[in-house]
Amino acid sequence: MEYEIPPYPDFDQIFFTPQFAADRLGLTTRALRSVEDDSDIEIRRIKTGTVPRRVYTPADLFQVAAIRRAKGLTKTLSHPITICTFVQKGGTAKTTCCVNLAIYLGFMGLRTLIIDNDPQGDATQMLGYDPDLEPHELEELGIPADRSVAGSIGNLLGDQVNMPTKSFAEIVKKPFGEHGPHLIPAELNLESLENLLIQSKNREFRYARFISKGRKGEIPGADLSQYDVILIDNAPSGSMMTLNSQVASDMILSPIRMDRFSTRALSRLGLQLQAFVEEYQRVPEVAAIPTMFIKNRPRAAAHLARIEEMFPGKVTEGKLYLSEDYSKAMEHGLPLLTWKGASANSAGAMKVVFDEILQRLLAIK
User: I need a surface site. Which of 39, 240, 303, 334 has the fewest CB within 10 A?
Assistant: First the structure.
C-alpha cells in the first residue's frame, strides 16, 4: 500500500496509542492513566466509530515524564553529564544513536540538550529542521517558517563577522515542546567555527568552558543548568570542534559497525585516549555500541570479540541489529523511537542498549 510522505515531520500530528505510549515510558497503561488522573495534563481524544479513544503525541509523553520526575518517580543523576559521539568512520549510526538516546533519556525523565556539532547538520535534519533554506523558502514548500535554523553553537561562541554572537533563546529549538529534548542546531556557517577555535587561546577548552559556565548560570541568556544530559553529535573527523567536544565530555559514545574498517577506527580511538590522558590529565568513559549487527554471522561475532578485547567492559551487551526500520523511519522523517512502525528487533533492541547506557550514567560520580 502506498503512503504519502509528508514534507516535514509534524510531531504534533503523530498519535500514539496508550499501549505504545506506556511502553515508551516504561510504564503500564494503568500507571500512565494514573498520571493523567492525578495531574492537569490533557490528552486528546480521537473519534473512531462511535467511541472516542485517547491518543498521545510525543510532547504528551515528555510531559508525563516531567510530571513523574517532579513527583520523584524517575531516576536522577548525581550530577549533569556531557556525552559526545565519536568514531572516525562514517555510517556507523552516530547521529541515530545521539538523537534517539536523547529521546529515550527524555522518556525516562531526564532533561536533555543536543548540540549538533557537524556542519552537515544530520541531527538537525533528523529532528525536522532545515539548515539550508530561509524561512520564505520553507513557506513556499508548505513547511512552517520556524523549521529554519537561525544559528549554531558557533554563534554562542563566535566573535567573527560571519559568526555573530547570538543568544541561546534565538538559536535553541524545541521539536517536542518544552519538556522534550532541546536542540542547538547546525548550519553551513558552522564550518567557520573550526578556524575560530584554531586561532583561540586554550582552544581545546572552548566548549568545556561554555558548558561549565552555562551550567553555573554565568552566561546571560544561556542557562544550561536545566539540562541533566548534554549530547554533542560530531562529524566522523578528528577536527578541533570534535576535540573540543571530547574535552568537554564525561562519556564518548562510539557506535561501531561490525566490519574491519570500523574496528580500525575504534582502535585509533584507543590510541587517542592514551594521548588524551597525558595531555589533559583526564579521560572520558567510553561506551561502544555494536551497530548493524547480524545474528549468527561468524564475521560479526569475530569483530565483536575484537572490540571487546580492545575496550574490555566498555562494549554494551545489547546490540543494534541490522533492520530496514531505520531507513523506513527516516523516510517518514522520524527518529526511530517516535515511529510507530518500529519493531522489537529495532526499537526494542535500542531500548535495551540505551537502558544499559543509562545505568552507566547513573554510576558516574
Answer: 39
pLDDT at position 103 over 50:
yes
Is residue 92 within 8 A of residue 257, CB to CB? The reply is: yes
Residues 49 and 153 in one domain: no
- Same domain? For 85 and 69 the reply is no
Residues 30 and 159 in one domain: no
Predicted local confidence at residue 162, as pLDDT: 66
Q: Are residues 194 and 343 in the same domain?
A: yes
CA 117 to chain centre: 12
Residue in 100, 116, 8, 105 with CA at minimum distance from that of residue 62: 105
CA 339 and chain centroid, separation? 15
pLDDT, residue 181, reads 98
Find the domain containing 245 and state its range.
Answer: 75-363
98 and 226 inside one domain:
yes
Are both 30 and 80 inside the same structural domain?
Answer: no
Q: For 329-354, how does the pLDDT look when each residue is reduced to its tens digit (9 = 90+)?
A: 999 999 999 999 999 999 999 999 99
pTM of the model: 0.94
| C-alpha cell recorded at residue 323 | 533492520
CA distances from 245 to 6, 133, 199, 234, 241 (A): 34, 27, 17, 8, 6
The answer to whether residues 58 and 180 touch, using CB atoms and an 8 Å cutoff, is yes
Q: Is 15 exposed, middle or buried (0-12, 13-18, 19+ CB in 10 A)?
A: middle
The secondary structure of residue 203, as a DSSP letter, is G
Assess whether 256 and 332 both reside in one domain: yes
Residue 108 shares a structural domain with residue 181: yes
For the chain, the domain total comes to 2
